Amino acid sequence: MTTVREELAKHVTQSMMSSFFIDKMGIINVKSYGAKGDGVTDDTAAIQSALTAAAASKGIVFFPPGTYLVSATLTWPQYVDIIGSGLFNTTIKTVNAITLVSASYAGPDYKQWGSMENISLQGANIGLIGLDVQYNYQMKLDHVFFGYFATNGAMINRTIMTKMSHCLFLGCGDATHGSLEVDYSTTFNWVSNYISGGQIGLMIDRTAFTIFNGAVESSGRVLLGSKSEASWPTGGTIIGLDIENPGNGNAYLEAGYGWTGTTGQGITGFELLNCSMPPATTTSIPYGIKIKHSDGAHFARNAIGQPGSPTAMIKLEGLTNLRMSITGLSSAVSYTYIEENGVERTDARPDHPWYQAGEHSVLGSKILTQNSTTPAINGYSYVKTNSTAATTITNMTGGIDGQVLYIFATDSNTTLQHNAGGAGQILTQAGVNLALTIAKAYCFIYDSSTTAWVQI
């Protein structure tokens, strides 16, 4: 069911927007205040007059089809809704290096703003910011085009429950500004938006957020918690986002790199689920995901493709990478799966879940092939033998104190050598070499004080 505003935007003609509608419904047509929308006339004063008039009645400002040129920043009063005649029918375009629309308030109180729908804001590569929002409460942006602004298409700062849906960003942002930036905000909600071009696509800092569906691509990338955040962490959920071609970045997504506090984390409770990161170019992308100073991160069912010569799929940094879990990647990789503080986590493999709580982790199964006399079983919960010829395992490298390991014999060609000496030595119950019996499981526990695997 369409709303009254949507029906007006689609069907109400200029002649119908008479004084009756203005007086009785609080709907103001900018052309009634002298705006031309011809792409030649400077409509700044006329549009601002219409916005000011609508503020008195907490009403609606309607833009018929046309291109409205402005030479100074438009001030968007609170309680006013701005509605165009369609994303590609109505355009507000700046002719100067200005912020095109400002909906900011000095604070500290939050003001109730309205909505902006079915309209385009264009900077023509000279505008600085398309929409600047500060101290806003429950703003809604729906079907809005933000195009060709030198810094931000939109800056959402110190807001509560802002919702952005089905918006398009094209050619905005630079090396330090995102096409869309959200900062110091509570429960920011993104639904099916699209960002293309620029160098930084989506930037979220000091904000609780939910991102559902949409895309950031064509030289864009996603930065979470990238600004200085001594005491205000970033956290939220990203579901079903398509991220392609991170441009000047070396990862599709970076999180937690702005943290400057001595304790705590820069990004908390972060989830990345069902996202796609396809290799849109042949440029080498060293990392799929980079996350630093984090707590409670969960990555699941993400498809990550890295062209060129990648360093690792997932890079973890800092001393507070706590309670991490990674499950269900789309395919295995031939390079490092997880790198933590510059060192490969050899207990992590892309074909099985990996969990981390402090220094402890657990992984799924591994097959011990013929002549793997010193297999690296770091973090595995169980291994299978698969020898086609007699093999003696002298020790098993790796292990975490208290880790339990099951060895399941799928053949009868493997012998575990008792007390081989050195790291990963094997201590069998009988104190002698143990010839494994097919279809039988053997249980060991790792004792870090002796660096031994002890049969139990």
Which tags fit this structure?
single chain; 456 residues; mainly beta; Pectate Lyase C-like; 3 domains; 35-stranded mixed sheet; 3-stranded mixed sheet; 3 helices; 6% helix; 47% strand
Structural overview:
β41 (441-447) and β42 (452-455) form a beta hairpin. The termini are far apart. 6% of the residues lie in helices and 47% in strands. By secondary structure, it is mostly beta strands. The strands form 4 sheets. It has a 35-stranded mixed sheet that branches. The protein has a 3-stranded mixed sheet with strand order 36-38-40, with no helix packed on it. It has a two-stranded parallel sheet with strand order 22-26. The chain is elongated. It is built from 3 helices and 42 strands. Residues 11-24 and 358-362 have low confidence and may be disordered. It has 3 domains: 1-172, Pectate Lyase C-like, CATH 2.160.20.10; 214-358; 363-455, no CATH class.
Write the layout of secondary structure elements.
Layout: H1 4-11, H2 19-25, E1 27-29, E2 38-42, H3 44-57, E3 60-62, E4 66-70, E5 74-75, E6 81-83, E7 90-94, E8 99-104, E9 111-112, E10 115-137, E11 140-160, E12 163-165, E13 168-170, E14 178-183, E15 188-196, E16 200-205, E17 208-217, E18 222-224, E19 235-239, E20 242-243, E21 251-255, E22 267-268, E23 271-273, E24 276-277, E25 287-292, E26 294-295, E27 298-300, E28 303-304, E29 312-317, E30 324-327, E31 336-340, E32 343-344, E33 354-357, E34 360-369, E35 380-386, E36 391-393, E37 404-408, E38 414-416, E39 425-427, E40 434-435, E41 441-447, E42 452-455
Parallel strand pairs: 1-3, 2-4, 3-6, 4-7, 5-8, 6-10, 7-10, 8-10, 9-10, 10-11, 11-12, 11-13, 11-14, 12-15, 13-15, 14-16, 15-17, 16-18, 17-19, 17-20, 18-21, 19-23, 21-25, 22-26, 23-27, 24-28, 25-29, 27-30, 29-31, 34-35, 35-37, 36-38, 39-42
Antiparallel strand pairs: 30-33, 31-32, 33-34, 37-41, 38-40, 41-42
